[in-house]
């Protein structure tokens, strides 16, 4: 934990975007210590926390990458990259440069020599739009896609068994231009401009080595990893994933999210302390949903709309009685009890990318979920849902990707993917 | 073509005019004062009364004793113009004044107003020195100036092939000559744009017209003819007039382009601007929306950028060898990628951009980003 403390102190000494870290920084560092790398923001729940309280810095260094068990921030910018260089050393060099830039940005500092004051003839290192903004609990989380292990970089025998090619699920209508990718970076922050600034600057540092394949903005978190917090609503107006794994639930994290023990042997040894990330762009036909009677909406989810309580229960966190729900209801099908205990940590965001040209919103859920193994996590659950979920009438999966998320960066000499390239 | 004409070259020229040297030229019949330097211009000589003089406000009393109209230039060692006086007729006199900072200059007489002129090296001494210049940079700028002029000189005949075909009403021949007539222009576009007035006449697109401009009357140049040939598929009297006008406007470019304000920084930034042009106009297919010859412009832009880079390399590789190596690599990669779209590497016949699919356009765009990002650091590598 000493590394984390160091980073927070550095953030306080950083030249910009630092004024507000005092409270948040200290609080977060304590939270991180308590939660073993995960960050608990506040006992009151992130839903009601005043904006000023959410401006601090989340420690970048740790046993696990931040941005997984971290209390879910309000905004997302997610980017998937194709690696363009074929030179392994050049890729390693980029990952090192990215790590240093990520350390700075998550601490609220500018990248490189900053956004102003340099040579007038040269473009500044930092693009500048985050100047004066708080660190905003920015987290940057990297992942490696199956295609990175295709032999270009000598990583063939390091592809973990869990990094499978996801099967095609019934109803999938995947756009290759919104799917896959060699490397992903998830940027989450309470200020959208801080998240966008981070992705933009990483993309800029990467030109010539990597190219953005696709990217996704998310504006409203649909999950919470904070205990006792109200579960945020998705664009259908419902709370979903009320039994999500909280950042403080060390045991459930160890059991369902962090790779360790026999899952981190052989080809997967470099994944010790890591996790697997599934990203799905799920288009939601909000217009047709909005024409659906309330009772049908509630039946489809298996919850009431106001409180989010499971059928027949009073409170959203009450344990659901699955048999009281319709067989094709979303909660019943997705529940661990219907999937041999499969549990995943959800971290998705709503999106609205303008319109679809047919007078409807191009809206939906950018589903993000972390787990120890997709073969016992996402795949069985999604197989069920794709076949039977009543929600399918209103949704379509249009983008998909799977990434191996390496363990955290331990200190100033460590870098994203070091164990993989060792 | 650029929508906003605020180029670094222009800015540099303005700054130079304001701060470095103030030159003005005036015709005068009065006898030159005693402290003036006399310049006697003949058809085969250019005699200067003093080769070394104190820095400051200096008056040149010019007399044309030759048989041809002449012009006299005061030049920096890299051929940038301090001041000039054109149209000095045989037997007439003119006075030129200029503020000389201490340093080396050339005084050049150009009998017949052609060529590099007959030059005399002179030196202004004492006083405040002008910004220190390196011979390497001066050589780079002088070589680039020659390149720009050579491009213009080679372009005009190619334009004539195109405009002749238009005047002859031969649509097919005009289409064939169109793209090639633009190569020299596209290679050196940032320099031409520094004049401000030529680019809007010859290279504007319909959407680039300003408020209140009428496309029927005010839209001139290559792209107007491109639309006539590919979209309207007809050549009328108006098109023939426009062909004449294009010849005339480009002749003006040819005459002026060699005198543009060029500095090592403007060369480096010009190279970056050429890649900007590719990124915003060519990769998107907007520049040549009727003819779809975008890849020809693309290639020409890259060639022009590469020329600047090659000339600046001796300086840049001392300051930032890593950057130079990266630029070498990325220029080569982009050129290799472009070669996939032509069968003959000696020709400028490229695949119609209409037939270049989305994934291929993305690949080209990635290549442009890969080159443009390090290229944006060239100016700093040249000056630091």
From TrEMBL, chain A:
Substrates-to-products reaction catalysed: heme b + 2 H(+) = protoporphyrin IX + Fe(2+)
Q: Which cofactors are reported in the record for this sequence?
A: heme b
Q: What is its main location?
A: other
The record's Gene Ontology biological-process terms are: iron import into cell
Subcellular localization(s) per the UniProt record: Cell envelope
**Tree of life domain:** Bacteria
GO MF, one example: heme binding
Where does the Dyp-type peroxidase C-terminal domain start and stop, copy by copy?
231-409
Q: Name one GO cellular component term.
A: cytosol
What the entry lists under InterPro entries is as follows: Dimeric_a/b-barrel, Dyp_perox_C, Dyp_perox_N, Dyp_peroxidase, EfeB/EfeN, TAT_signal
Q: How is the cofactor bound?
A: Binds 1 heme b (iron(II)-protoporphyrin IX) group non-covalently per subunit.
Name the source organism. Streptomyces nymphaeiformis
- Keyword vocabulary terms for this entry: Heme, Iron, Lyase, Metal-binding, Oxidoreductase, Peroxidase, Signal
Domain Dyp-type peroxidase N-terminal residues, every copy: 65-219
The molecule here is called: Deferrochelatase
Q: Per its UniProt record, what NCBIfam families does this chain match?
A: Dyp_perox_fam (TIGR01413), tat_substr_1 (TIGR01412)
Q: Report the sequence similarity comment from the record.
A: Belongs to the DyP-type peroxidase family.
What role does this protein play?
A: Involved in the recovery of exogenous heme iron. Extracts iron from heme while preserving the protoporphyrin ring intact.
| Enzyme Commission number(s) from the entry | 1.11.1.-
UniProtKB/TrEMBL annotation, chain B:
Q: Which CDD domains match?
A: Imelysin-like_EfeO
Ranges for domain Imelysin-like come to 140-378
Question: For the EfeO-type cupredoxin-like domain, which residue ranges apply?
Answer: 16-114
Q: Which UniProt keywords apply?
A: Signal
Q: Name one GO cellular component term.
A: periplasmic space
Q: Which family does it belong to?
A: Belongs to the EfeM/EfeO family.
Q: What is this protein called?
A: Iron uptake system component EfeO
Species of provenance: Streptomyces nymphaeiformis
Recall the taxonomic lineage recorded for the source organism: Bacteria, Bacillati, Actinomycetota, Actinomycetes, Kitasatosporales
């Amino acid at each position: 934990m000493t590394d984390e403390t160091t980073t927070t102190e550095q953030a306080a000494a950083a030249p910009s975007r630092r004024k507000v870290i005092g409270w948040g920084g200290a609080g977060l560092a304590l939270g991180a210590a308590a939660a073993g790398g995960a960050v608990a923001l506040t006992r009151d729940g992130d839903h009601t926390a005043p904006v000023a309280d959410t401006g601090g810095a989340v420690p970048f260094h740790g046993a696990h990458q931040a941005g997984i068990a971290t209390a879910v921030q309000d905004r997302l910018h997610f980017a998937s990259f194709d690696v363009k260089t074929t030179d392994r050393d050049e890729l390693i060099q980029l990952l090192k440069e990215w790590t240093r830039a990520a350390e700075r940005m998550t601490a609220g500092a500018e990248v490189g020599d900053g956004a102003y004051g340099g040579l007038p003839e040269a473009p500044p290192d930092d693009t500048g739009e985050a100047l004066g903004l708080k660190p905003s609990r920015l987290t940057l989380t990297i992942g490696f896609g199956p295609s990175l292990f295709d032999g270009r970089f000598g990583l063939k025998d390091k592809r973990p068994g869990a990094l499978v090619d996801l099967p095609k699920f019934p109803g999938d209508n995947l756009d290759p231009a919104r799917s896959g990718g060699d490397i992903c970076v998830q940027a989450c922050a309470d200020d959208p401009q801080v998240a966008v600034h981070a992705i933009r600057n990483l993309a800029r540092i990467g030109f010539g080595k990597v190219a953005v394949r696709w990217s996704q903005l998310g504006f409203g978190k649909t999950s919470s990893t904070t205990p006792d917090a109200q579960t945020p609503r998705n664009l259908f107006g419902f709370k979903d994933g009320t039994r999500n794994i909280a950042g403080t639930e060390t045991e459930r994290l160890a059991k369902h999210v962090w790779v360790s023990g026999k899952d981190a042997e052989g080809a997967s040894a470099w994944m010790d302390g890591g996790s697997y990330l599934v990203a799905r762009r799920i288009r939601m036909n909000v217009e047709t949903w909005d024409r659906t009677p309330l009772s049908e909406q509630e039946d489809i989810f298996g919850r009431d709309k106001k409180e989010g309580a499971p059928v027949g229960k009073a409170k959203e966190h009450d344990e659901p009685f699955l048999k009281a729900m319709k067989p094709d209801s979303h909660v019943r099908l997705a529940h661990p009890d219907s999937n041999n205990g499969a549990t995943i940590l959800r971290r998705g965001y709503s999106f609205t990318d303008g319109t679809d040209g047919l007078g409807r919103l191009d809206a939906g859920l950018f589903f993000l979920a972390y787990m120890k193994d997709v073969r016992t996590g996402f795949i069985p659950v999604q197989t069920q849902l794709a076949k039977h979920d009543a929600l399918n009438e209103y949704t379509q999966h249009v983008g998909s990707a799977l990434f191996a998320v390496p363990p955290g960066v331990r200190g100033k000499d460590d870098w994203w993917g070091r164990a993989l390239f060792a | 073509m650029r929508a906003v004409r605020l180029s670094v070259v222009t800015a540099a020229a303005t700054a130079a005019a304001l701060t470095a040297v103030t030159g003005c030229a005036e015709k005068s019949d009065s006898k030159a004062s005693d402290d003036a330097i006399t310049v006697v211009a003949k058809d085969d000589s250019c005699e200067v009364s003093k080769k070394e003089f104190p820095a400051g406000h200096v008056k040149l009393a010019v007399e044309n004793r030759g048989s041809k109209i002449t012009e006299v230039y005061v030049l920096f060692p890299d051929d940038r113009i301090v001041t000039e006086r054109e149209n000095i007729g045989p037997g007439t006199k003119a006075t030129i004044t200029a503020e000389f900072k201490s340093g080396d200059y050339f005084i050049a007489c150009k009998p017949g107003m052609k060529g590099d002129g007959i030059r005399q090296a002179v030196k202004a001494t004492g006083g405040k020195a002008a910004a220190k210049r390196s011979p390497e940079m001066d050589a780079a700028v002088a070589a680039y100036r020659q390149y720009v002029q050579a491009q213009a000189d080679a372009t005009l005949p190619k334009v004539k092939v195109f405009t002749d075909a238009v005047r002859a009403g031969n649509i097919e021949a005009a289409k064939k000559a169109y793209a090639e007539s633009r190569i020299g222009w596209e290679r050196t576009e940032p320099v031409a744009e520094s004049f401000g007035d030529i680019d809007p006449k010859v290279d504007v697109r319909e959407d680039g017209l300003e408020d209140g401009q009428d496309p029927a009357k005010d839209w001139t140049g290559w792209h107007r003819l491109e639309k006539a040939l590919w979209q309207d598929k007809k050549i009328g009297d108006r098109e023939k007039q426009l062909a004449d006008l294009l010849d005339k406007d480009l002749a003006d470019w040819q005459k002026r382009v060699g005198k543009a304000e060029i500095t090592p920084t403007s060369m480096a930034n010009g190279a970056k601007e050429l890649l900007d042009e590719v990124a915003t106009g060519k990769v998107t297919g907007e520049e040549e929306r009727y003819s779809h010859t975008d890849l020809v412009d693309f290639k020409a832009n890259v060639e022009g950028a590469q020329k600047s880079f090659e000339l600046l390399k001796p300086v840049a590789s001392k300051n930032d060898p890593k950057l130079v190596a990266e630029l070498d690599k990325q220029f080569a990669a982009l050129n290799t990628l472009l070669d996939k779209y032509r069968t003959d590497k000696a020709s400028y016949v490229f695949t119609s951009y209409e037939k270049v699919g989305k994934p291929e356009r993305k690949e080209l765009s990635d290549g442009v980003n890969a080159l443009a990002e390090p290229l944006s650091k060239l100016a700093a590598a040249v000056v630091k």
